[in-house]
Design a protein that fits this description.
The complex is a heterodimer of chains A (about 400) and B (about 260). By secondary structure, chain A is α+β, with helices and mostly antiparallel strands. Chain A folds into two domains: about 1-50 and about 270-400, no CATH class; about 80-255, no CATH class. Chain A has helices spanning about 1-15, 15-55, 85-95, 125-130, 145-150, 160-165, 210-215, 235-250, 265-305, 310-315, 320-360, 365-395, 395-400; strands at about 60-65, 95-110, 115-125, 135-140, 155, 175, 180-190, 205, 225-230, 260-265. In chain A, strands 2-3-8-5-7-6 form a six-stranded mixed β-barrel. Chain A is elongated and about 105 Å long. Chain B has about 260 residues and is of the alpha/beta class. Chain B has one domain: Rossmann fold (3-Layer(aba) Sandwich). Chain B has eight helices and ten strands. In chain B, the strands form two sheets. Chain B has a six-stranded mixed β-sheet, sandwiched between helices. In chain B, strands 2-1-4-5 form a four-stranded antiparallel β-sheet, covered by helices on one side. In chain B, helix 5 packs across helix 6. The longest helix of chain B has 18 residues, at about 205-225. Chain B is globular and about 50 Å long. The relative contact order of chain B is 0.17. The chains are: A alpha+beta (about 400), B alpha/beta (about 260). The interface of A and B includes residues 318 and 321 of A. The structure holds adenosine-5'-triphosphate and magnesium ion. Magnesium ion binds near residues 76, 77 and 198 of chain B.
C-alpha cells in the first residue's frame, strides 16, 4: 500500500511538473541556503584554524592597550609603549619562553629601479624567524652587529621579492624605503595567503633599531612575539608574562592591565565566533524560508485536493478507507517536499563548492547537516500535508462524486 | 468499533456466511441478500426539508436482476446510494446478507463496498489520464492485492467486457460505450455479489445501450451477480426480471417486466 501510495504520488507530481516545481521552490531555497551557508562557514572556520597553525600554536603576542579592546584593536590610546628592554626581560626572566622578539610595523612603498610596491615594513630581529617558525629560502639573517648598530639590511617576503625582482637574484641589491636605501640580504620562504585578509608574504623585515631610528623616529615596540617551549602550557606562560609586565609597568594591585597577552587560540576562536554568528543568522533566515515553503506546499495540496474531489469520490466508492486516502495525500506532500529537499541539498552543496572556490577556503560539506535537511523536509511534508490530506479523507463520497 | 470477528478486509462473519449461498437460485423463505424496512431519507431541515424517501420496504434475493424506474426526483438515486453504502438512511433499517449495517462506521462501510459491491455510474466515473488497466485495478489496490495478481485479474475483467487490446488506452481515447465497459470491468474485478448501476446507459446511443445491457445480463446469468439498475428507458428495463416503480419517494409497483415487447438484439 505504501509502495502504491509513493507510485501514485510520483504520478500526480509529474503530471503537474511545473506547478510541483514552483511549489517546492521555497523548500529548495531554504535547504540550499542552509547547506551552502554552513558549508562555507565550516570551510572558513577550517581555514582560520589552518592559518593559525601556520602562525604557530605556541606563540604569544604582547601589545600595549586595554585587554577589552581585543587583538584587532590598535595600540591603546594612553598606554605606554613596549620597549626593547621588555623583550629582553621576557626572554631572560621567564623560563617557559624560548625566544621573544620585538616588532613594529608600518605600511610603506618600496622601490627598486622603476618598480614600486606598497608593503608592510617590520622592524624586528633574527629571533623573529624562530618565533614565527619562518625559515629563509635564500640569503642570511641579520648579523648581531647589524642589529646593534641598526644598519639598513633587509629581508624580503616572497611576494615583495616577486614584485620587485621577478626571477632575477635580489641578494645584494639596494631597495629604497622612504629616503633610506636598504641592502637585500635574504628572502623568506612563502607562507601562503591568510584568511585574516592579508598576504603574509607581503613583508619587508629590517633590524628594529634601524626601523626605530630611520623610519618610526621613536623607541617604541608595538608588539612582542614570545614563543613558548614545547610541553609548557600556554596559560602558565601567559600568566608569567602578565605578572612580569605588571611589575615592569608598575601597575598597582587594584589597577587593570594596560597591555594584552594573546595566544593564537583566542584569535582563532574570536574569528570562528564571528563566522558562527553569521552562519546562525543566515540559518534563521533559511528556516523562515522553509516555513514559507511548507505553507506553499499546504496551499498547493489544498488546491490539489479540491481539484481532485471527483477522483477522491471514485476512490472512496470503490472501497478506499479514510486511512488509505489520508496516506495517499500525505505521502504525496512528503514526496513533494523530499524532492524539494533533495534538489535543495544538491544545489546547496554546489553553491557551497562554488563559494569555497571563490573564497579559496576548503570545501567542508557536513554529512549530518545533509541528513538533517533531508529529515527536516520530510517533516515539513508531514506537518503541512496533514491538514489537506485529512480534508481529502473526510470527504463525503456522494458529494465528491457529484463534484464537477 | 467493528463487530466481533471482524478484521479489516473481511466484513462481518454473518455477511460472509450468507454470501456463500447468495449465488444460489433464490428460494422463497431464504434470507434476502438485501432487505430494507421503512427506510426514509430526509435532506435539509425546516423549510428546506426534502423527503427523498418516505418509507421503503424492499427485499432483493441473490441472483436477481432488478430494474428501477420512476420520474425524476422520485428518489431512485437516493435509494441506490443507500443500498450501495455510500449514504445512510435517516430512518428505518437495512440488512445486508442478514446483518444489520445501520450502525457500521465509515470505514466498515468502505470495506463492504470494496468486497461485495461494484458501481456503474451514468457518467462512468473513471480516473482521467489513467489507463483502462489502472482504472480496473483500483479496487484491488485497496484490497491490498499483490501487483502481478492485480494485473492478471484486471486483464481478465477487461477481456470479459470485450476490451482486449485496449488495456493501455486512457478514458479520453475511448468511446462512451467503451468507457462504460471499463467501468463495468472495474465493478466486476473484485468478483462482487451486487452491481449497482445508476442509469448505466443514460449517456449512450441505442445500440451501445443494448450492448451494455447484454453484458449486464450475461454477468447476471453466467456469474450469478445480483444487479440493481436504475433506468429511464423501458427498452432497457425489459432486460430485468423484476421492475420496481418509484413515485415520490415510495415504491408504487413491483412487477415482472412485460417481455412481450421484444427488444432488439
Ligand atoms: N444532497 C441533497 N441535498 C438535498 N436534496 C437532495 C440531495 N440529493 C437529492 N436530493 C433531493 O432528493 C430528491 C430525490 O433525488 P434523487 O436524486 O434520488 O432522484 P432521482 O429519482 O434519482 O432523479 P433522477 O431521475 O433525476 O436522477 C430530489 O427532490 C432531490 O432534489
Ligand atoms: Mg438519479
Amino acid at each position: 500500500m505504501l509502495y502504491e501510495a509513493v507510485r501514485l504520488a510520483l504520478q500526480a507530481i509529474l503530471r503537474n511538473m511545473f506547478r510541483s516545481f514552483l511549489t517546492v521552490l521555497g523548500i529548495v531555497i531554504g535547504v540550499a541556503a542552509v547547506i551552502a551557508m554552513v558549508t562555507v562557514g565550516q570551510g572558513s572556520t577550517d581555514q582560520v584554524e589552518a592559518d593559525v597553525s601556520t602562525l604557530g600554536t605556541n606563540l604569544l603576542m604582547i601589545r600595549p592597550g586595554q585587554p577589552s579592546q581585543g587583538p584587532g584593536s590598535g595600540v591603546g590610546g594612553t598606554a605606554a609603549s613596549l620597549t626593547l628592554k621588555d623583550v629582553e626581560a621576557i626572554e631572560e626572566q621567564i623560563g617557559s619562553v624560548m625566544v621573544a622578539t620585538p616588532s613594529n610595523s608600518r605600511a610603506m612603498t618600496v622601490i627598486f629601479g622603476n618598480v614600486n610596491s606598497s608593503t608592510t615594513v617590520t622592524g624586528t630581529d633574527t629571533r623573529f624567524l624562530t618565533a614565527r617558525d619562518w625559515p629563509l629560502s635564500i640569503g642570511r639573517a641579520f648579523y648581531e652587529s647589524e642589529q646593534r648598530t641598526g644598519s639598513a639590511a633587509c629581508i624580503l617576503g616572497s611576494t615583495v621579492r616577486q614584485k620587485l625582482f621577478g626571477n632575477s637574484d635580489p641578494l645584494g641589491a639596494s631597495i629604497r624605503l622612504k629616503q633610506i636605501s636598504c641592502r637585500v640580504i635574504g628572502v623568506l620562504e612563502a607562507k601562503g595567503a591568510s584568511s585574516f585578509g592579508t598576504d603574509q608574504d607581503d613583508i619587508v623585515l629590517m633590524p628594529i633599531r634601524a626601523f626605530q631610528r630611520r623610519i618610526a623616529g621613536n623607541q617604541d615596540v608595538s608588539m612582542i612575539y614570545a614563543s613558548i617551549r614545547t610541553g609548557v602550557s600556554t596559560d602558565k606562560a601567559k600568566a608569567d608574562i602578565e605578572r612580569l609586565m605588571r611589575e615592569r609597568r608598575r601597575i598597582g594591585a587594584f589597577e587593570e592591565d594596560d597591555f594584552n597577552v594573546f595566544d593564537m587560540k583566542q584569535i582563532s576562536s574570536m574569528l570562528t565566533g564571528i563566522t558562527s554568528v553569521l552562519t546562525g543568522l543566515l540559518s534563521a533566515v533559511a528556516a523562515v524560508s522553509l516555513l514559507v515553503g511548507g505553507i506553499g506546499i499546504m496551499n498547493i495540496m489544498l488546491v490539489s485536493v479540491t481539484e481532485r474531489t471527483r477522483e477522491i469520490g471514485i476512490r472512496l466508492a470503490v472501497g478506499a478507507t479514510e486511512g488509505q486516502v489520508l496516506l495517499q495525500f500525505l505521502v504525496e506532500s512528503i514526496v513533494l517536499s523530499l524532492i524539494g529537499g533533495l534538489i535543495g541539498i544538491v544545489l546547496g552543496l554546489g553553491l557551497g563548492l562554488l563559494g569555497s572556490r571563490l573564497l579559496s577556503i576548503p570545501f567542508s560539506p557536513n554529512p549530518s547537516l545533509v541528513l538533517a535537511a533531508f529529515v527536516f523536509s520530510a517533516l515539513v511534508g508531514i506537518v503541512f500535508g496533514f491538514f489537506p490530506a485529512r480534508r481529502a479523507a473526510r470527504m463525503d463520497p456522494i458529494e465528491a462524486l457529484r463534484h464537477q | 468499533m467493528m463487530p466481533p470477528g471482524t478484521t479489516p478486509g473481511t466484513p462481518p462473519g454473518t455477511i460472509l456466511g450468507t454470501v456463500a449461498s447468495a449465488r444460489a437460485v433464490p428460494s422463497p423463505g431464504a434470507t434476502p441478500l438485501i432487505s430494507l424496512r421503512g427506510v426514509t431519507k430526509i435532506y435539509g431541515t425546516g423549510d428546506a426539508e426534502v423527503r427523498a424517501l418516505r418509507g421503503i420496504d424492499l427485499d432483493i434475493h441473490g441472483g436477481e436482476f432488478v430494474a428501477i424506474m420512476g420520474p425524476s426526483g422520485s428518489g431512485k438515486s437516493t435509494a441506490m446510494n443507500i443500498l450501495g453504502f455510500l449514504d445512510k438512511p435517516t430512518g428505518g433499517s437495512y440488512a445486508f446478507g442478514g446483518a444489520e449495517v445501520d450502525d457500521l462506521s465509515r470505514d466498515q462501510l468502505a470495506l463492504l463496498r470494496r468486497n461485495f459491491l461494484g458501481f456503474v455510474f451514468q457518467g462512468y466515473n473513471l480516473l482521467a489520464r489513467t489507463s483502462a488497466l489502472d482504472n480496473v485495478e483500483l479496487p484491488l489496490i485497496y484490497q491490498g492485492m499483490a501487483r502481478t495478481e492485480r494485473r492478471r485479474l484486471a486483464f481478465d475483467a477487461l477481456g470479459k467486457v470485450g476490451l482486449k487490446g485496449r488495456e493501455d488506452h486512457d478514458p479520453s481515447q475511448l468511446s462512451g460505450g467503451q468507457q462504460q465497459r471499463v467501468a463495468i470491468a472495474r465493478a466486476i474485478v473484485t468478483n462482487p455479489d451486487v452491481i449497482l448501476a445508476d442509469e448505466p446507459t443514460g449517456n449512450l446511443d441505442t445500440s451501445r445501450s443494448h450492448e451494455i445491457m447484454d453484458l449486464l445480463t450475461e454477468l447476471n446469468r453466467k456469474d450469478g451477480i445480483t444487479i440493481l439498475m436504475v433506468t429511464h428507458e423501458p427498452d432497457m428495463a425489459v432486460y430485468a426480471d423484476r421492475l420496481i416503480h418509484f413515485v415520490d419517494g415510495r415504491i408504487e409497483s413491483d412487477t415482472i417486466p412485460d417481455k412481450a415487447v421484444p427488444h432488439a438484439l
